[in-house]
User: What shape does this take?
Amino acid sequence: TIRSKKGELVGRLVLGVIPSALPKVSLLTRAMEREHPRVEFTVLSQSSEEILRNLHEHAVDVGITYLDNEPVEGLMQHALYDEHYCLFVGENSPYADKSAVTWTEAAQEPLCLLTPNMQNRRIIDRAFAVANVHPSPRLETNSIMNLLASVKSMGLSSIMPDYFIHVLGKLEGVRAIPLTHPKVEHKVGLVGLPREPLSPLVAGLFAASQLSLTWRARLGCTYHSCGTQVMWSMHTIKGWMLRAEVSPWSLPRPGSGRGGPEGAQEEEGGQTGESGRTASVWVEVVLQRHPFTH
Assistant: This one.
């Protein structure tokens, strides 16, 4: 780690990441880049066992792995998100339009899964055992992308985290159905060795994983015509609870239909009276959850 003359962090962070978490890593590296734009990254796909070994051998700086399934004692930890599971099938599967599928039903499908050395696979095998079924997969791989490709092109089914349908965008020809009975979820998080002194790069990444985000959003609100008070309710956007304050200059001037520098617009047909005026304005919204929440 090097600090520039301006006090900026400069260096390269090496991350060991379990395959099921790889699509989310860019959310963390993006948050780190915003705070420390001169930091570079190497992201390696590794099993949870490899991550723990490589941390102790100083081959990786930090890891992203399961926190509550197999032991990670003695490490710095920060939970990033909860992993839930879906059965991914082709659009022509008889399960494609179902709202939920049991693990027993999933076991009847021609499956492609991660290899047994992956903790994700051991979690899946344990869920099948609880359901008293023991399927033999048609295909095993250590690549999440290979699983998705096999569902699309081979007509196989797979079990993967539900967030894939949010992070990877629309998966043409693929459906994801939540798995139930048993309900399975596990915490995934950031881990690192508690070295003294702690690397500023590692400390910076742990800090970035907990940062609030600031979004710019156009929201409808009701305000008094004097522009000194804004009244609105709490809003929820995909699980984010938010509250914002609007400065008077951003509000549309009565009768003008226009606002200040942010281009606030009075809504057509907006009402004026003792209750105030309705408008849509650009505001800065601070969201109090970490970047991994979707």
Residues 212-290 have pLDDT under 50 and may be disordered. The CA atoms of residues 228 and 247 lie 8 Å apart. The chain is about 20% helix and 35% strand.
